[in-house]
Amino acid sequence: MLEIFFKECLYFTASRLSRVITKMAEREFATIGLSPTSAFLLMAVYEKESISQKEIAQILHLQPSTVTRLIEKLIAKGVIVNRVEGRMSLISSTEKGRALADEIQRCWTNLRSNYNDILGEKQGDELTLQIFEASEQLEVIEKG
To answer: How far apart are CA 75 and CA 53, in angstroms?
Structure first.
């Protein structure tokens, strides 16, 4: 009975998937000394140089305090800088940070290949889209 309950529980199943995919992503990104979330943060900075911490939090769907901790770690690594303009904190990549762009892309490609080798590319893409859409729908309810 408990096994059926777990199979039918979105919370349990999503948490289990999160642990598995997080372990795979962390293993991949360890090769370049970053966490997967730090890599996403850097990608946001690459997309829009001089991006605010607030924008980063919105893009990554993270709490501002979490973004602050990530930024502090990346500043310590020398891959981003934080410039304060008035009341706004703007984040930019350094030359060292920009040099990681190709490595970050390689890690994401490898991660995707790793789970697609197991799930199949079609199922991996469909599952990703379904989870994204469900997250969007549930997030609207939570914010409302």
So the answer is: 13
Task: Specify the pairing of strand 51-52 against strand 80-85.
Answer: unpaired
Lookup: tokens for 56: 């980063």
Considering the entire predicted model, what is its pTM? Answer: 0.86
Judged by DSSP in three states, 23 sits in helix
Spatial separation of the C-alpha atoms in residues 97 and 24, rounded to whole Å: 23
Short-list 137, 130, 113, 33, CA closest to 79: 33
Residue 10 confidence (pLDDT) above 80: yes
For 38, counting Cβ atoms within 10 Å of its Cβ (0-12 exposed, 13-18 middle, 19+ buried), the class is buried
Residue type (1 letter), 49: E
Residue indicated by tokens 């096994």: 3
pLDDT in tens, 36-87: 999 999 999 999 989 999 999 999 999 999 999 999 999 999 999 999 888 8
Q: Phi and psi (nearest 5°) for 89?
A: -105, 120
